[in-house]
Amino acid sequence: xxxxxxxxxxxxxxxxxxxxxxxxxxxxxxxxxxxxxxxxxxxxxxxxxxxxxxxxxxxxxxxxxxxxxxxxxxxxxxxxxxxxxxxxxxxxxxxxxxxxxxxxxxxxxxxxxxxxxxxxxxxxxxxxxxxxxxxxxxxxxxxxxxxxxxxxxxxxxxxxxxxxxxxxxxxxxx
Length: 174
Prior knowledge:
Layout: H1 3-6, H2 17-30, H3 41-61, H4 64-74, H5 88-106, H6 110-138, H7 143-173
Helix pairs in contact: 2-3, 5-6, 5-7, 6-7
């Protein structure tokens, strides 16, 4: 059972957060272990599993990044141990940013640091804009078009993950 099935909502990159919260509280009440204290051990374990599933579902569905990862995994786009290759132009751009960050570690320069921060912010905004465009229209598309978009969303996901590592390095310098 997927988290979307548990909450009886359609698979979506942008589900109704109010509905998710409502389903979470409803299932939390329904599957609260204290209400099943006099039931059989088997029933108590079943309820505990459902309660745990509900908590995990809520944590994933309320968080944009976790939900993105979850949907890509559900759709078979993320494979354990996959060695995904990012485009060379992106890797080259990130290599240049990394070189500047290494220089800044040994030779601090506030102007250069601000320049790199602006560059990273611009890249991040572009990635987020592209991701929003793809995910906001995903639900309304036919299956073949969804498959094409999933591949593009996967690429943006991996680019974003790479950028998060760059931002982490940047935060250590700042």
